[in-house]
Write a structure and sequence with these properties.
The chain has four helices and 32 strands. With 438 residues, the protein is mainly beta.
Length: 438
């Protein structure tokens, strides 16, 4: 009999310890961009399904993580499933907690287990929602009037709000032109968009949030690179006419306006639209067939996008995106830069092209000095399995163009890049100093 009594007590304690309230909510998805400027963000209904019996003086705390309650928030408890409702009052609140106390229970006593406490009237501080994306949760924990855990094993937690970035932008087709050395670096090889065009696509996206949505009104895309090749009339800078001939931005139905800066290294496309759509930017080079066609440079491109939108409250706003890689123009051969090579009577130069492969290649040099670039295809070629000295040809070409003092040399070889190496050394006659610059 004694053992049976102990067993009964043990089972009762185990059953009591297993009681645990559960919580539920239908989360609202809040736009991080659209919610800016809202006075508060409402917390949807948070329901606590009870699994124990409560008495006067028992307390429970609802804890917020991921945001803060607004100071004007007046959280209150309503009830579901009770024939006669108990009385529950707000005991205290902080930026992240609301603590309630049972102040009266029905008479005769009504069973609490299986019935609901329902949190209403809770409001969130808007800036704490929009400052960081992610889930915002409420957790429930109860205690008896004497401080013992009640109705919980661990903590019952539910997501009530998910804050979500609506606006984004990405490069969905990168520039990939391969400059053709066989055609004097004035056009691309076949197999890209065409021998005279290369296409960039940038796609802004407005995801669906659900609460306080932002509304798209347009975008600005700034494409950065070296666009000096667009200048074909000999005057300083790229004119609006030259830009229109070499670049066109289009979309499905938006309005696209393009400008280029004075330096010729940034094209700004302003898009006016009510629906986010892909911008297709087509670059068109003149090609070898056109006598005015300039030499194209290998380079990398980036794009900086800014999305324009209205908040849910109607305020015009913008969101800047991180700079994105927008592709590159490469060469179907080898190119190397000798960043420093002086010319003049007091200097001697030694420039050599080594070819470890089996494919001979034409050699072209660009000499840049005093803001001008001079280009020539040399008589010498990169002989297979040999080293070719191009020093005298380069020196004669520099003298022909009046280059003296410091210069930059680009060496381009129409051979597989893995087989080619370039070295550059200059000798100063005044102090017998020999310096390797490449």
């Amino acid at each position: 009999m004694f053992k049976k009594s102990l067993l009964a007590v043990a089972l009762g304690v185990a059953a009591f310890g297993a009681n645990a309230a559960s919580t539920s909510a239908t989360p609202s998805v809040v736009s991080l961009e659209g919610a800016v400027g809202q006075t508060t963000i409402a917390v949807p209904t948070y329901t606590i399904r009870l699994a124990a019996e409560y008495a006067v003086g028992d307390t429970f705390t609802i804890t917020l993580t991921g945001a803060e309650f607004d100071t004007t928030s007046n959280p209150a408890i309503t009830f579901a499933g009770f024939t006669n409702n108990p009385t529950v009052g707000l005991l205290s609140k902080t930026a992240t907690t609301a603590t309630f106390r049972v102040t009266a229970v029905p008479s005769p006593v009504e069973v609490f287990s299986g019935k609901d406490f329902v949190l209403n009237g809770a409001l969130l501080k808007t800036t704490t929602v929009t400052d960081a994306a992610g889930d915002i949760k409420l957790a429930y924990a109860a205690k008896t009037s004497t401080g013992l855990d009640l109705d919980n094993v661990g903590t019952a937690t539910s997501t009530v709000v998910t804050s979500k970035a609506q606006l984004s932008s990405s490069v969905t087709k990168a520039l990939n032109g391969v400059i053709d050395v066989e055609n004097e670096r004035k056009q691309f090889t076949a197999g890209n968009d065409s021998i005279t065009t290369d296409v960039l696509e940038v796609t802004p996206v407005v995801a669906t949030a659900g609460t306080h949505d932002a509304s798209y009104t347009g975008a600005t895309h700034v494409i950065k690179g070296d666009f000096s090749w667009m200048d074909t009339d000999g005057t300083t800078g790229v004119s609006a006419t030259e830009l229109a001939a070499a670049f066109k931005a289009t979309g499905t139905d938006g309005t696209y306006a393009s400008t280029i800066n004075t330096a010729g290294d940034a094209i700004t496309v302003t898009v006016t639209d009510t629906t986010a759509e892909t911008m297709t930017a087509t670059f068109t080079v003149l090609g070898k067939a056109n006598s005015k066609a300039p030499i194209l440079s290998t380079q990398k491109f980036t794009v900086d996008s800014t999305i324009k939108y209205n908040t849910a409250g109607g305020t015009a706003s913008t969101k800047a995106m991180a700079s994105a890689e927008a592709g590159s123009w490469t060469l179907n051969g080898f190119d190397e830069n000798i960043v420093f090579m002086p010319f003049g009577t007091q200097y001697a130069q030694s420039i050599n092209v080594s070819n470890t492969g089996k494919v001979a290649g034409a050699i072209t040099v660009d000499i840049t000095a005093d803001g001008k670039t001079h280009t020539k295809t040399l008589t010498a070629t990169a002989t297979p399995m040999a080293t070719t000295n191009i020093s005298q040809e380069v020196k004669a070409f520099a003298a022909e163009k009046g280059v003296t003092g410091n210069a930059h040399i680009k060496v381009v070889v129409n051979s597989p890049s893995a087989d080619i190496d370039v070295t550059g050394v200059y000798y100063s006659k005044s102090d017998a100093d020999r310096v390797k610059t490449k």
